[in-house]
Amino acid sequence: MATGLLRHVRPLLLLAALAAPLPLLAQASTAESGQEGGYRLPAPELRAIVDAPAAPRLSLSPRRDLLAHMRVPALPGIEVVAQPELKLAGLRIHPRTHSASAFSFIDDLRLQPVDGGAERRIEGLPQPLALSSMQWSPDQRHIAFSHVDPRAGRVELWLVDVAAARARRLTDRPLGSVTGSGFDWLPDSSGLLALLRPQGQGAPPADDGVPAGPNIQETRGGGQVQSLRTYQDLLGNAHDEAVFAYYMTSQLARVGIDGGVRTIGAPEMYVGASVSPDGRHLLRQRIERPFSHLVPYSRFPRRIDVASLDGQLLHTVATLPLVEGLPTGNDAVATGVRRISWRADAPATLVWAEAQDGGDPARETPVRDRVFAHAAPFAGEPRVLADLSMRYAGISWGHGSLALLYESWWKTRQMREWRLAPDTGAAPALLREGSYEDRYADPGTPVIWLDERGFARLLTTDGGETIYRIGDGASPDGDRPFLDRQDLADGRTERLFHSQAPWYEVPFAVLDAGATRILTTRESPTEPANVLLRDLADAAEPVALTDFPHPTPALRDVVKEQIRYTRADGVELTADLYLPAGHDVARDGPLPMLMWAYPREFKSAAAASQVRGSPYRFNRISYWGPLAYLAQGYAVLDGPTMPIVGEGDAEPNDSYVRQLVASAQAAVDEVVRRGVADRDRIAIGGHSYGAFMTANLLAHSDLFRAGIARSGAYNRSLTPFGFQAEERNYWQASDTYHAMSPFNHAHRIDEPVLIIHGEEDNNSGTFPMQSERLFAAIKGLGGTARLVMLPRESHGYRARESILHMLAETSDWLETHVRDAKPR
């Protein structure tokens, strides 16, 4: 079960930002000392990309007849991002509002009928609206949402009456969850389960600055090797622990649609709570002491139990210990109850997995995970649903004789899908198995509906024996999304919809059990994604439900081509090649080019060679990736595949540098062969693992004239218990760690590199020190580099000023070192 109060995936990803007045941006002046001041503005064409309007977020109602449109505002200013944050146990907390620290919110909410009709405004919304999460009631009569009010220092719970299109604040009691949305609907739609700020809690623990004593950690050995990942934002002392406990403590309560509040038990440190489908049982998860200074809160001791809605303890499921380390390997897990949740199609049945191999992938055993089910009143022993030879990866519930269970094993990239009959106890039937890297063979993901109680279940027809699947439709010609109907009795599949050129069209909702009407999003290179209503029984043109404009019309006519080329060892590679509008290679010749990539590991060359993406996707020109520089006349090679392949027992990273350089060499050779770039004016760049790639390519090749490395890690001895997909620790593979660390080869970086990093990066492994130490090494070795540390920024940059400054720095670097670079 994920942290927070969510019992199924919400169709809402809040990446928008709170609009705020922006201070004037100062143009920096460069002094000979290297000291500069103020944020910088890039060229107007780049500023226009930053300020381009974003399409609204959409959420489909449970009855599938209404769409909620959520407007995404402009980027927040640095004065918003610079608000105080607490960094505790892997969390970032906004202390004023007692919530997870966030600066991205929705600022308008509207409703639109799926069958046609204009959008309806919601009256009575708080102004200015800062909606952080929302959820439809199971009966669709209401929408609940949380509104962040930093001025009042609270997160409020609001309710929308859908029929009246009117909003009201539901209760004066503020929400108090720092790990999730803080609310969830009861199955009968009579109200919500919420985590509220405890009444009478008082002020947070004060710090007088006087240490209570030394901070001590101890290990007693025992000889067992464990993986201790390099986490950020950990607890550091007793005061941190007290402040963490203060903000983690919340009051579980029922909030009726009339605003009445009924508390459930005493305030505790909740990390999860969910109501059973019958509405009579609560699954609660709370963390306990002792806390750790080595791992985030998700590894702290945890108590899992079931209670009645009035808080009476009914059953203790498990008391889990602190987990500070795991056995070596990406398939390693903690022992004990794992991934516990309610069975969606039963009144009150818990389902979870437990490792049978001690959580250690190196231990040979025929059964890796055992999946259990335990029904209320939880008497007797739990029933075994399945014994798995891989790791449990979840269940999609249908009905008493149908559930789909998934297992996977990272080491081999294998997966299996089983059919279960959960009520009868019949032996599981294997539906499919193979490599989850094999995109061409992927039959798609089963279509899920929310039932009348708001729980996610398989959409079935023909007496419950037929399901639907939506997939990417990966092929040598690119992705062509589809909708299939599958008869589980005989395995036959019927294709109901398939995206057709020159469009990229994705089914995202089936509106009726017979799948005669569906919603899709359709886009093309020049047309942004819009929602269509399709009648699959009618050959008529689909009905457009939205008409979102092109966000950057000045760049509408940029040219994209999905290209294929081959690495020297025979692995086939893919990339998206972009040229500025109007550029004719035969007439105008080659352009300066920016390549932007991110390496990925594979277990087979065949999987690595598969085409990813589609030539028909919209050319979304974002400030985040490389495409913004099309506006300044650069050619762009976006996402050239950089596969690192380890066939059989071979470890991919043991040949990382060789394969990386070979992939880059193939990409450079291809764009030069096409005449779109020349070898003396190509830059390489990337973010995070792409920055690590960039530094390695500059150290181990002379293919590029300059590099842009954002928020990367460069010394792998500082991430000694694994990184990215590498599962061995430093002492097991020290030669690989050394060879892959560009810091160790900084003396070979003889091309200029721009290094950008957020000063408060929260990503595991990419500590800001990584960029500082690489810059110091290059400086000391006489190389050319520039280090830009963005104040108050995390792994992804959030403030408008930071984004504009990043663009200005990158543009200047490309102009200085690439555009007019002389032949070497």
What is the secondary structure topology, with strand pairs?
Blueprint lengths: L43 H7 L6 E4 L5 E6 L6 H4 L4 E3 L2 E4 L4 E2 L7 E6 L6 E2 L9 E6 L5 E8 L4 E8 L4 E4 L13 E3 L5 E6 L41 H11 L2 E6 L4 E3 L6 E6 L5 E7 L14 E7 L4 E8 L17 E5 L6 E7 L13 E7 L7 E6 L2 E9 L2 E8 L4 E8 L4 E10 L9 E2 L1 E3 L5 E3 L1 E2 L4 E6 L10 E6 L5 E6 L5 E7 L6 E8 L2 E9 L7 E2 L14 E8 L5 E8 L5 H4 L2 E6 L3 E3 L2 H4 L26 E4 L4 E3 L10 H18 L3 E11 L1 H12 L5 E5 L23 H7 L12 E6 L9 H13 L4 E6 L9 H20 L5
Parallel strand pairs: 41-43, 41-45, 42-44, 45-46, 46-47, 47-48
Antiparallel strand pairs: 1-2, 2-6, 3-4, 4-5, 6-7, 8-9, 9-10, 10-11, 12-13, 13-14, 14-15, 16-17, 17-18, 18-19, 20-21, 21-22, 22-23, 24-25, 25-26, 26-27, 28-32, 29-30, 31-32, 32-33, 33-34, 35-36, 36-37, 37-38, 39-40, 40-43
Query: What is the mean predicted local confidence, pLDDT?
Result: 93
Low-confidence stretches: 1-34
| Record field, number of beta strands | 48
How would you classify the helix and strand content by structural class? mainly beta
Binned strand content: 25-35%
What is the topology, as strand order, of the major beta sheet?
39-40-43-41-45-46-47-48
Query: How many DSSP H or I helices?
Result: 10
Helix content: 10-25%
* Terminus-to-terminus distance: 57 Å
Give the quaternary arrangement of the chains: single chain
Computed CA radius of gyration, to the nearest angstrom: 27 Å
Q: For the report, how would you describe the main beta sheet?
A: 8 strands, mixed
- Please state the overall shape, judged from the principal axes of the Cα atoms: globular
